[in-house]
């Protein structure tokens, strides 16, 4: 008789699992893994892009790219140079960048139904 396997899962395990979860979106033949970047990544990208960080439109286009963790199963570390950032944008292409932006903007939508506005 084999003993049953007992697994203890704590709340902190669930939080860690959720924090490390990567969502995958598919665009044509490309799969893109996405995960919300940590706050430090967001600060580091300002240093990476230099003076371009002053341009709000540019930063609005760049920040969603930080969510990309993999493309077609290949890990994509956070860009540490402007050249790496541009290479990732090129790899994603117009459709990939658009899909990433749509996903990220959807992740931040807050429900504003008529009922919630009334309350």
List keywords for this structure.
119 residues, alpha+beta, four-stranded antiparallel β-sheet, 5 helices, 4 strands, 50% helix, elongated
How is the secondary structure organized here?
Elements: H1 11-20, E1 23-27, E2 30-34, H2 39-49, H3 56-62, E3 68-71, E4 74-75, H4 82-107, H5 114-118
Antiparallel strand pairs: 1-2, 2-3, 3-4
Describe the structure.
By secondary structure, the protein is an alpha+beta fold. It has a domain at 25-106. Helices cover 50% and strands 13% of the residues. The protein has a four-stranded antiparallel beta sheet with strand order 1-2-3-4, with helices on one face.
What is the H/E order?
Answer: HEEHHEEHH
Q: Assign a percent range to the helix content.
A: 40-55%
Question: Averaging pLDDT over every residue, what do you get?
Answer: 86
Kindly provide the radius of gyration, computed on alpha-carbon positions and rounded to a whole number of angstroms.
18 Å
Biggest sheet architecture: 4 strands, antiparallel
The helix tally amounts to 5
Strands, total number: 4
Strand portion, in percent? 5-15%
| Shape label | elongated
Strand order of the largest sheet: 1-2-3-4
Structural class: alpha+beta
Termini separation: 59 Å
pLDDT < 50 stretches: none
